[in-house]
Amino acid sequence: MTEEKVVKSSELDHHFRYEISEKVGAKTLLKCIQCGVCSSGCTVSEFIDLQPHRVVASLLLGLKDVVLSSNAIWTCSLCHRCTERCPKNVDYSFILALLRNMAVEEGNAPKEYTVTVNTLYDSGFVVPYTGRMKETIDRRRERLELPQIVPPNMDDIRFIIEKTNLGDLIKNKNNEEEE
Ligand code: SF4
Ligand code: SF4
């Protein structure tokens, strides 16, 4: 559960709901009636610190920091059930994807994501394919009569990472290391 804390009105971002709504268009969160249907069907509800309808309420209230630092935006499996069931057509799963991008821009991405993206950037693989790990993988593939792993094209991988928001994760990690 999220620790309860008092938020002063001066800490609220009243423009945040409009910033998100402009990007979501017709499926805006401004139509939310707080019915809770999104939360009742959420496939990861037992693992998140803020239920979907509470995330929407927090966004409407301007609790930007609370939302961007919650695990709810990262634990979502993007199954889209909330969006499909919403009686007011709020595109909650798309809103979550936006929130993830915003959290990354603010340096708020979980370490697991940063580490994975950096491993990918450094080696072209999402798990380290070196040393003992490489030997084990190669041995198993041979036993299963699978072809050898083709080395990834690092130029392509780095180009994609640098040209997308994933590049911000790299920058954030580099900044952490310099501090
Ligand atoms: S289902 Fe839709 S209207 Fe109901 S609380 Fe969730 S976002 Fe709001
Ligand atoms: S898209 Fe995310 S928030 Fe919506 S129901 Fe699925 S897991 Fe829950």
Structure notes:
Helix 8 packs antiparallel against helix 10, helix 8 (111-123) crosses helix 11 and helix 10 packs across helix 11 (166-178). This protein has two domains: 9-105, Alpha-helical ferredoxin (Fumarate Reductase Iron-sulfur Protein, Chain B, domain 2, Orthogonal Bundle), CATH 1.10.1060.10; 111-178, no CATH class. By secondary structure, the chain is mainly alpha-helical. It has helices at residues 16-24, 37-40, 52-61, 64-68, 72-75, 81-85, 92-105, 111-123, 131-143, 154-163, 166-178. The protein binds iron/sulfur cluster (2 copies). One iron/sulfur cluster (SF4) is lined by residues 42-44, 52, 76-82, 92-93. One iron/sulfur cluster is lined by residues 42-44, 52, 76-82, 92-93.
